[in-house]
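Practice record 12: protein with nicotinamide-adenine-dinucleotide.
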Amino acid sequence: MPEEVNPFESLQSQIDAAGAHLEIDDDVLERLKYPERVLETNLTVELEDGSLGRFQAFRSQFNGDRGPYKGGIRYHPNVSRAEVKALSGWMVYKCATVGIPYGGGKGGIVIDPDEYSEAELEAITRAYAVELRPLIGEDKDIPAPDVNTGQREMNWIKDTYETLENTTEPGVITGKAPDSGGSAGRVEATGRSTMLVAREAFSYLDIPIEEATAAVQGYGNAGSVAAKLLEEIGVDVVAVSDSSGAVYHENGLDTQAAKDHKNETRSLTGFEGASEELTNEELLTLDVDLLIPAALENAIDQQLAREVQADVIVEAANGPLTPAADDVLTERGVHVFPDILANAGGVTVSYFEWVQNRQRFYWTAQKVNEELERIIVEAFDALTTTYEGREVETFRTAAYVVAIQRVADAFEEAGTFP
Ligand code: NAD
């Protein structure tokens, strides 16, 4: 029987696991397990063949105790209310883990973008922006890219919002193209924090990273950049995959050449620099030092977790392990460094973008990368201090302990209204 996993329930079980280590009243903890509000809407858009398309879309604002809601927008056929709620909650605890002044939100449209033309995607995105307009704003809720969205969609949303509001407000959304107010370093930020967390993790565990081998599942924005930056610090990235399958070379792949091949042919398979092709399952169970899931939720279930041979997992994707898989890996002594720290580079550089937009003063790539490194290393240290000091079982629970305490403190300090 395949494991049935509701990502929102996964989030709630992670909060409960951390709550056991915190002196927070149960009713406050209960509040931190549910979104404040969820928009569910149906976009009606005229398609190129003259028919009307209906697209279900969501935006969840999970918690705003530490600042405006913040989180990406996903275009995928599997987007659901439960997934959007979970992803918005993970954003709350991610922002708190790295100490940036945001709450958490997330949005999505149920769509396979490959089935629509660019003009249709623009119309759908603008229709979504119209629905989002009352909810978003640089002091209210600031969307960003996620799976299957990027600079193009962010630019359309910014333009729709600014046109309807008759203003200029680039800080209403992040992940924009540089000429539309985007930040240097934003595209690479998620992969960069993944690399930084892997580097800090290996140093903490006293394993030389320059002798390590790695496998990366998912070769989009997060995975391909993580692979490239790991290769730059000496890691042999022996296998990478996308939804078409996995490519492998025991001496390490040329990650840039693999990316170029994917850009040209839209899939990794057929890459000439590989010695072998594998299934995604084979990639996830390779005997490597470091495994980076960088695709979607629930990539590793309980059964697969029993076969994972990696010593360290750094989660670039959000929620890539089912809770049962997480338990199996903990029992088996695999060190898992959680998504809410490892992929927090994306939202951290989004935060830098928002700061620059508000100041109308732009930083160099060097400054962005230095500030990102400082924030990720400090957050890593706070996590390991909590891990040791409070004797929690996993690095994930340690991250939630740090994050939930910060959100609960902000809530208690504000008091309740009305
Ligand atoms: P993306 O769309 O750029 O890339 C996703 C990749 O995963 C693609 O290469 C796709 O082919 C691959 N994929 C999909 N299903 C797969 C499967 N079953 N097996 C192997 N590969 C598969 O998306 P992204 O922005 O890189 O996001 C990936 C993950 O990282 C998501 O969980 C996302 O929430 C998370 N994340 C992204 C950012 C960001 O800034 N982009 C920030 C934080 C977290």
